[in-house]
Amino acid sequence: MRHRHLVALAGMIxxxxxxxxxxxxxxxxxxxxxxxxxxxxxxxxxxFSSFDISFADPVTGNIFIADRxxxxxxxxxxxxxxxxxRATGFTGQQATTSVSGADGVLTVTSGGIxxxxxGDGNSTLKVFNATNPAAPTLQQSISTGGTTRVDEMAxxxxxxxxxxxxxxxxxxxxxxxxxxxxxxxxxxTPPFKIAVPAGQGGIPGGGMEQxxxxxxxxxxxxxxPALAGTNNPGGVSxxxxxxxxxxxxxxxxxxxxxxxxxxxxxxxxGNLMVGCGNVGAAAIVLNPAGAGSIVKTFPGVGGTxxxxxxxxxxxxxxNGNNGTNxxxxxxxxxxxxxxxxxxxxxxxxxTTSAHSITVDPFNGDVFVALAGTLxxxxxxxxxxxxxxxxxxxxxxxPGSLSxxxxxxxxxxxxxxxxxxxx
Length: 422
Description:
The structure is a single chain. This protein has 422 residues and is mainly beta. The chain contains two helices and 27 strands. The strands form seven sheets. A four-stranded antiparallel β-sheet has the order 1-27-26-25, with no helix packed on it. Strands 2-3-4-5 form a four-stranded antiparallel β-sheet, with no helix packed on it. A four-stranded antiparallel β-sheet has the order 6-7-8-9, with no helix packed on it. Strand 3 (63-67) and strand 4 (72-76) form a beta hairpin.
């Protein structure tokens, strides 16, 4: 009997030597990060009540959030989950979002230098050196030729260009900026405005939302909330690095009846995840090849603004709501050729706004800005002012090694008891 126990123990030890690490479990709320009120904050109680785009720097892991309440871009550490500093000098929250700022945000870190690009409500693109997040310095403020905000952006590492959309102009348009030549617009025909042509369904009030760079095609894609036609659901335009709108995929021709596209991200599969601004609409997985085709839809995932793709987890993170504060959420969708599946739905606290999301590229933590007011505050009451950043992360589940160690302990105890009895 003792010999059989020893053999079993030896086998389990050998198995333990080949056991894998612990497997990450589902996302859960890890913590809230306070957003300190700055001198430019005029909200009641110094609230963090208005914000826009969130962006995770893929090199530093720092998190950048456009904070209209503080007329700034706030910078947080993805590792220590703390506030680091802010880039200031934006228009802040005005009477309408079309002239408020900061808005669109992205960073490019190269050669140890982090450059922050941020859109402002006065139609300017602001460029900061944010290498020291505690004290970003303004390098340039570039007019984009309009009177309303510079909104969402995308970066092409192939051509080192930033595409920025002026979504509130009539018609909406984009501009391309070089990140290597003084950040000036690239050599396009003046006035450097890229709009969806009428021949592709472009209309004055069509808008232009979240762009994304596609390394497979070497082009940009951008969501267009509305195209020509009664009750048109909108679509997606493809833009070359020379600033030419190559084509526009009209969702109305693909059987979609309601969308108003907003968020957009490109997955490793080559599929595009499109978020729909209309409450009650479905998130759309689009294959842009050929004339474009719908791969899959996710009913009930509507009311979306920004969304994110994380190459480490190979998942899309799509926010949504059904029109009420109590049912704001985000979903995790796997990226594959078949369109993916929802692996988790994460409910958010009651808040007045939660339309922005980004993911830490190193550990997979998800950052969701939560607006707070004196009347509705989703954050800890101990914080100095309402509103905060919620951080969700995966708690590792016990791997096979820990389970085997537990089994070894039990088998050892059993063998010891039997030796005593004999």
